[in-house]
Amino acid sequence: MSVSQNNGERLSREQAVELLDRHGISPTEQRIEIASLLFARHQHLSAEQILAQLSRQASRVSKATVYNTLKLFAETGLVREVIIEPTKRFYDSNLNPHHHLFFTDSGRLEDVPPAQVDIAGLPTLASGVEVVGVDVVIRVATRKPS
Ligand SMILES: [Zn+2]
């Protein structure tokens, strides 16, 4: 199933259940609701944005449930958690390896294909330690007139 080709506002209920199943997550109503919203397309949403979208749709999912569900999704690898600051984290439905561009003015996060970032070197690692991932966040701001 390709989530990027889904043009609808939401993933179908069946697709959401299948996605949860594949990650060993038991499909409760709230989890289905959150998954179908998040995986409708490749996007980065904060818990607050998900909560706001759910409440616009008159959903009865509580704030605590949204936070707990997103934590579970991140732990099981269903969603990628992108931490910009300890209090600013996004849930990324694009699981393909990629980096990010963070617009500090607007708070927007954009994907950067891995081929566009060249990492020239990494620190020497202690023996028994290996690199499992490199996540680059490039922070940009509107240039101030000089
Ligand atoms: Zn991303």
TrEMBL record:
**Per UniProt, which keywords does this protein have?**
Cytoplasm, DNA-binding, Iron, Metal-binding, Repressor, Transcription, Transcription regulation, Zinc
Listed under GO biological process in this entry are: negative regulation of DNA-templated transcription; regulation of secondary metabolite biosynthetic process
Q: Which GO terms describe its cellular component?
A: cytoplasm
Does the UniProt entry include the keyword Zinc? Answer: yes
Q: Has UniProt tagged this entry with the keyword Metal-binding?
A: yes
Compartment(s): Cytoplasm
Q: Which residues cross the membrane?
A: none
A Pfam family annotated for this UniProt entry = FUR
Q: Which GO terms label this protein's molecular function in UniProt?
A: DNA-binding transcription factor activity; transcription cis-regulatory region binding; zinc ion binding
Q: How does it assemble?
A: Homodimer.
Give the UniProt family note. Answer: Belongs to the Fur family.
Entry protein name: Ferric uptake regulation protein
**Species this protein is from:** Thioalkalivibrio paradoxus ARh 1
